Amino acid sequence: MKNKKRWLALGLVGIMTLGCFAGCGSKSDGKSADGKGDSSKGSVYYLNFKPEQDEQWQQLAKDYTKETGVDVTVVTAASGNYETTLMSEMGKSGAPTLFQVNGPVGLANWKDYCYDLSDSEICKQLSSEDFALKNDAGEVSGVAYVLETYGIIYNKKILNDYCTMDNAVISSPDEINSFDKLKAVADDIQARKDEINSQFGYDLQGAFTSAGMDGSSDWRFKTHLANLPIYFEYQDEGINTTDAIKGTYLDNYRDMWDLYINNSTCDPKDLAAKTGDDARNEFLNKKAVFYQNGTWEYTQLIDGGLTDDDMTMLPIYFGVGDEANQGLCTGTENYWCVNKDADEADIQATLDFMDWCVTSDEGTKCMADDMGFNIPFKKAQESQNLFIKEDKQMTEDGKTPVAWNFSTMPSEEWKNGVGSALTAYAADQTDANWDAVVSAFVDGWASEYKLANE
Known about the structure:
Helix content is 44%, strand content 13%.
């Protein structure tokens, strides 16, 4: 495996920090948590990447075990700790039989563990070959299991009320179709939040929810927002990966980050400790109008009391190109892989479980309705997720989706370097501190790419 020393070091960190992990529910003895699985049929241990869908995966695993007698254990890694957790768990007996990589870069680190799915039923069920992740030998090492979309979610009622105010910069939310227009609206809402509260009875604290840089939230900005300057540079260069990013659109990245942190519910100096839960609760409690997040957040917003009539999603306008015809950010970094070193019976049990999830009525209903997933398989049920529907409508209207390019980011260390620099800049917004963000982005990319590929 490339860069073996780095991964061994990461594994040691994972073992030290996650020593209690196995005792908290990982599969180490071939039995489910309730002990009702039939070990003679093999077993499944799924290391889940998505904390927001943990409850649904736990229930689906129980339902499958009840129906088939096959033990399925689901362990969910903490947000931002998947690679560390995977390194730790793969070093144990009873390692995950089903795990995830984020695309080509992730596959480079785990390709030696991946079972060839080329002839599997799960691969045959894909709605397009584009969703098969192949290694250098042309074998299918992973299959995408969910397509996702993100943008700027906003509260329709608050924004509509704002539009009725004297001297509002827009008369309808439909007028927001560029970065300049979004900035004008956010700046005005931030400046007039007390007036808005007095007139309409809200407890608005900012135009945007807190851009928290705690590990449960920072991925929204060091990965998802960072995708935008990469995407537009790739478009200019006609490429889909690079060993050296130029940083052509990092001024736009700064403008967007400034917009978020200076029109927020909190002082930018406090962002280091703000969490994903903080941001969600601020949005649910109408303390902010705008909230960068994605389709995966839909179920939690609905469970929190919002309805489809309360919210919608805008593209992340970046001040680049034909903004009026820009769509939402749509793609995947979620590829299922099967551990080829697992017992043969466990491999077959895992393949059968995967196939059931994406072909059975119960599995596809759970993934569409309960998880809010848009899954790229032939028997997928149409999701009722509002944001998925809006992405589909924008695409049908001729708007161009922004591709997901995070899978080309050279390493998790690169993301962390960008995140740390963003946090420092938020606390002290000097040109020198932004230069550190640029260095983490550009110089960090080149050095991390070299480390990963030497």
